[in-house]
Design a protein that fits this description.
three-stranded antiparallel β-sheet, 7 strands, four-stranded antiparallel β-sheet, single chain
Length: 130
């Protein structure tokens, strides 16, 4: 299993290094010592903890959909001309960008700071590694 330093785990978990140290001290996260004498944690354990700690914003709509990838966020930018628009949402730590018609932006009454839900249904998802 891949191992990571406590500071890396903190980055992926969205918490401080001190919080990860407290979790290690309390036994909530197991740590080992690497060859250089630094504390490290198992990458898989960090991934599971990140999944358990994740809190999605409640979807404000009550519409049923087949798409499972739904990201609730706030509109942070709108670039619009007479035909097309680019709408940016900040959904938790993720930036989601959508291209749509300018007419759709007006019909949805999207404006900076408004709540919106990005619904993604895709036949291909690309996974990369660092």
């Amino acid at each position: 299993m891949p191992q990571m330093r406590l500071s890396e785990a903190a980055m992926f978990l969205g918490v401080s290094d001190d919080t990860v140290r407290r979790w290690v001290d309390s036994g909530a996260l197991d740590a080992q010592t690497d060859d250089a004498g630094r504390k490290v944690v198992d990458g898989h354990a960090v991934a599971l903890l990140a999944r358990d700690q994740a809190r999605a914003v409640t979807d404000p709509s009550s519409v049923g959909r087949s798409a499972r990838n739904r990201f609730v966020g706030l509109v942070t930018n709108i670039t619009m001309d007479t035909v097309m628009a680019q709408v940016e949402l900040q959904c938790g730590p993720f930036r989601v960008v959508s291209l749509m018609s300018s007419e759709a932006v007006r019909e949805l009454e999207l404006e900076l700071g408004s709540v919106a839900v990005a619904v993604v249904k895709s036949t291909s998802v690309i996974v990369e590694t660092p």
